[in-house]
Amino acid sequence: MTIKAAVFASGAGSNFEAIMEANDLKCKISLLVCDKPGALVIDKAARYGIPTLVFNPKEYGSKSEYEEMIHRHLQHYGISWIFLAGYMRLIGDTLLNEYESKILNIHPSLLPFFPGKDAIGQAYDAGARETGVSIHYVDAGMDTGPVIAQESVMIEENDTKEKLKERIQKVEHQLYPTVINQVLSNKVR
Ligand code: GAR
């Protein structure tokens, strides 16, 4: 039976696109969930003909209220896995309980270093020599769940944040589909 997955994203959607373009992805991306009306990723999903749930968290009384609404949509589409791809919001108890060990996140640093927002800028401004990409299971913390895979990216002497971001995202676009397939084929514990 086909495994159905949802991508959650808030921004440009380059990782969403990389997942969509991956060869032999072992699941069907059946829904995009986006918490930022107007985000570029919404247009990308439309181009791929992927149904999209766009919502504004401010219109809900609490996280559990909007996560219950998301959960109803996930059930409707028969979603069994969630891949966060630049979804800039903590996942709450509602979805964590329903999707235990079935939510992955990609983060642009070698966790546990530089969690949270603007991880690339944080590493660059700290004068780090090395940063990278992490893919991890999601828990209630900010980029704190068990790490599945990491790949490092060196920060060069004459780097700019933009150049560094380009190299990091190139790694992300390769790594995320690969790790998704490994996890879905039970090659990760
Ligand atoms: C990616 O670099 C992803 O690693 C990062 O947001 C970017 C989204 O880019 N995620 C986080 O920082 C999560 N804490 P995209 O919208 O082009 O895929």
UniProtKB/TrEMBL annotation:
One of its GO terms (biological process) is 'de novo' IMP biosynthetic process. The record marks D143 as: Raises pKa of active site His. It comes from the Bacteria. Keywords: Purine biosynthesis, Transferase. It catalyses: N(1)-(5-phospho-beta-D-ribosyl)glycinamide + (6R)-10-formyltetrahydrofolate = N(2)-formyl-N(1)-(5-phospho-beta-D-ribosyl)glycinamide + (6S)-5,6,7,8-tetrahydrofolate + H(+). Residues 4-180 form the Formyl transferase N-terminal domain. Pathway: Purine metabolism; IMP biosynthesis via de novo pathway; N(2)-formyl-N(1)-(5-phospho-D-ribosyl)glycinamide from N(1)-(5-phospho-D-ribosyl)glycinamide (10-formyl THF route): step 1/1. Transmembrane segments: none annotated. Its EC number is 2.1.2.2. HAMAP family: PurN. This is Phosphoribosylglycinamide formyltransferase. It comes from Oceanobacillus iheyensis (strain DSM 14371 / CIP 107618 / JCM 11309 / KCTC 3954 / HTE831). The gene is purN.
